[in-house]
Design brief:
Shape: flat
Strand content: under 5%
Largest sheet: none
Number of helices: 7
Structural class: mainly alpha
Mean pLDDT: 84
CATH class of the domain at 70-118: Mainly Alpha
CATH architecture of the domain at 70-118: Orthogonal Bundle
Number of strands: 0
Helix content: over 70%
Distance between the termini: 28 Å
Order of helices and strands: HHHHHHH
Low-confidence stretches: none
């Protein structure tokens, strides 16, 4: 998801990240359905079918990972501007005007410089002020029991 949020065009970023979250939710529901219907089996397939279903998506994503370009943001953080342009051309397609690629490079570089200007942030700052509320929400969402009725 981190790659998706870094590589997606700004106007599509929110929809793509939300779509990925929905994709995960649908996968959890399908996994529960498969588990529920294979529990009545008494042969080896009762555990093999859920395992096969479990591995379909990670194998697919691993294969896709071999063909996607490196993150343009990561490349810009390493001062590899030309490589970032090539990565953006691969992501956006060859028909994209050079001015759009240059604008994206400038925007991302400005965001990286703004983050560097903020300086180093310590982990303890998660437990202070309004960040504490966000941290508690994160803990609740991670450790809540997943119950499907």
């Amino acid at each position: 998801m981190l790659y998706l949020s870094e590589a997606a065009p700004a106007h599509l970023r929110g929809a793509m990240v939300t779509g990925f979250q929905a994709y995960l939710l649908i996968g959890q529901i399908l996994g529960s359905v498969v588990d529920n219907y294979t529990q009545v089996r008494t042969d080896r397939l009762s555990y093999q079918i859920p395992l096969i279903v479990l591995y379909i998506v990670p194998v697919f994503l691993s294969l896709v990972n071999l063909i996607i370009p490196e993150s343009p943001r990561w490349l810009l953080e390493k001062d590899r501007v030309e490589d970032a342009k090539v990565a953006l051309l691969k992501l956006y397609g060859n028909g994209v005007p050079e001015s759009l690629i240059d604008a994206q490079i400038k925007e991302t570089s400005a965001a990286i410089q703004a983050e560097k200007a903020l300086g180093h942030v310590d982990l303890i700052e998660l437990f202070c002020g309004t960040d504490l509320v966000c941290f508690l929400h994160l803990l609740l969402s991670v450790f809540q029991p997943h119950i499907l009725v």
